Each structure stands twice: as C-alpha cells, then as structure tokens.
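R.M. (postdoc): so does anyone remember the format we settled on? I'll just put the structure tokens first.
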C-alpha cells in the first residue's frame, strides 16, 4: 500500500515565525524541513532582496511556483514558503490538497518588531513605514491565510507553537 502524502505548509505574515517553527517542528517529528525562499534564492543565485530588485516580484512568484512544484509528492515534509505564497491560488493548488496548511497568526505590530530584530531585509516592506506596509499586507491576505486547516497564535513562545502543531498532526493521524 502506498503511503498517503504527509505534508504540512506553514503560512503567515513575514515575521510570523514560519522558518523557526517549521525547523523545530520537523526536527521533533522526524520530517524534512524546507524553507522555500532558500530554495528560490539558491536557484536564482542571489538573495531574495536582489531577486525582487533585479528581476521583479512577478519573476519571483514564478520561481516560487517552480520550487513549489518540485515538492509535490514528497513525504513527511514541513514547508515554509514566504508570506506571499498564499496569494497565488495556482501555486497553492500544486500542493493542496493533499498537503495540510497551518496559519501562524501574528499581529502586524509584533511581526514588524520581530523583523526589525532579525535584521533580514524584506523587500516588500520597504523602509518608510514598515508597520503600515505589513498592515496593508495583512489586510489584503488575512482571508487567504484563514483558509488554512488550523490557525495558531504565534505570540506565544516557539515551543508552545510547535507543541500545538505537533498535537494537531497526531490528532489528525499524520504523526503516530
Ligand atoms: C514575502 C515574504 C518573504 C519573501 C518575499 C516576499 C511576502 O518571506 O518570500 O520577500 O510577499 O510576504 P517571509 O514571509 O519568510 O519573510
């Protein structure tokens, strides 16, 4: 009998903790973790910031879709795409169904604070008023993020977020 596809996609605003939570969850349950921005960046041979500056967002979304297509059918995978991945229904449909999706919820104010502390440049946020920018992203995407199978408050410590996700995967029968 072939094994059902076991994949979890983490979605949410930049600064919601997708990469941190995803890596820790995967480690705990023994699944592979993939940060999709890293894959896209390696492929394009430049940082996400440079992809946006030199090739534009539309090209970035194409590269993101290509990287997503390669995850199809991969077993026991936690994937963390960038926060805008959810805006392309055709990209989402490459994995879901059968992949499950969890929304890591964070307020724009906390997201901006985390991003500021991380020091990583997020091209879509600009530098003028990052909080207003992330609030606008939130307003335009909240409905899409809410289509996830589970929403988790991430204004908790990482360990609590990971435990909530792990318990849910167990209750859904994806993890023993
Ligand atoms: C984006 C989020 C980024 C990255 C790119 C676009 C977005 O990823 O993919 O800068 O549209 O929200 P993170 O959510 O990991 O910051």
């Amino acid at each position: 009998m072939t094994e059902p596809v076991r994949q979890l996609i983490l979605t949410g605003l930049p600064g919601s903790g997708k990469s941190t939570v995803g890596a820790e969850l995967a480690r705990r349950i023994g699944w592979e973790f993939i940060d999709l921005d890293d894959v896209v960046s390696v492929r394009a041979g430049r940082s996400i910031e440079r992809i946006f500056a030199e090739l534009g967002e539309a090209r970035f979304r194409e590269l993101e879709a290509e990287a997503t297509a390669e995850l199809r059918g991969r077993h026991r995978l936690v994937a963390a795409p960038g926060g805008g991945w959810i805006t392309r229904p055709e990209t989402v449909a490459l994995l879901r169904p059968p992949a499950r999706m969890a929304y890591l919820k964070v307020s724009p104010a906390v997201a901006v604070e985390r991003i500021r502390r991380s020091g990583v440049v997020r091209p879509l946020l600009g530098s003028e008023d990052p909080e207003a920018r992330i609030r606008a992203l939130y307003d335009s995407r909240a409905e899409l993020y809410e289509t996830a199978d589970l929403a988790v408050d991430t204004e908790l410590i990482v360990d609590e977020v990971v435990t909530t996700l792990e318990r849910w995967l167990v209750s859904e029968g994806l993890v023993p």
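R.M.: ...and that's the designed sequence above, right after the tokens. Also worth knowing: The chain has a mean pLDDT of 92. The radius of gyration is 16 Å.
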